[in-house]
Amino acid sequence: MVTKVQKWGNSQGLRLSRQLLEDAQIGVGDEVDVAVHDGVIVVAPIRHLRGKHRLRELVRQIPKGQKSEEVDWGGPVGKEVW
């Protein structure tokens, strides 16, 4: 795919075709890592190793005013040092 670097406000950007993004398995809103290797710009999707949940989304689900209490898991079992 050939495209042009264009000015958007105070930044520059590239438009990427839907097909290109589908081939790279990147969707709108996905996080990507952008890096330069030997003068080449590399855009790679960030893969979440532990599933599709993101910490910020999970924290948003905690009810306002939630009070957590300490949980006693019992005494040491084995060679733990407390």
What report would you give on this structure?
- Helix content is 15%, strand content 22%.
- With 82 residues, the chain is an alpha+beta fold.
- The protein has a domain at 6-60: Pemi-like Protein 1, Chain: D (Ribbon), CATH 2.10.260.10.
- Strand 3 (32-37) and strand 4 (40-45) form a beta hairpin.
- The protein is elongated.
- The model has no long low-confidence stretch (mean pLDDT 87).
Task: Summarize the helices and strands and which ones pair or pack.
Blueprint: E1 6-8, E2 11-13, H1 18-23, E3 32-37, E4 40-45, H2 55-60
Antiparallel strand pairs: 1-2, 3-4
Structure characteristics:
single chain; Pemi-like Protein 1, Chain: D; 22% strand; two-stranded antiparallel ribbon; 82 residues; alpha+beta; 15% helix; elongated; 4 strands
Name the overall outline. Answer: elongated
Q: Quickly give the CATH architecture of the domain at 6-60.
A: Ribbon
Distance between the termini: 59 Å
Q: From the helix content, strand content and strand pairing, which structural class follows? A: alpha+beta
Structural Rg: 22 Å
The biggest beta sheet, please? 2 strands, antiparallel
Can you list the strand order of the major beta sheet? 1-2
Listing every helix as H and every strand as E from the N terminus to the C terminus, the arrangement reads EEHEEH
Question: What is the structure about, briefly put?
Answer:
This protein has 82 residues and is of the alpha+beta class. It has helices spanning 18-23, 55-60; strands at residues 6-8, 11-13, 32-37, 40-45. The strands form two sheets. The chain has a two-stranded antiparallel sheet.
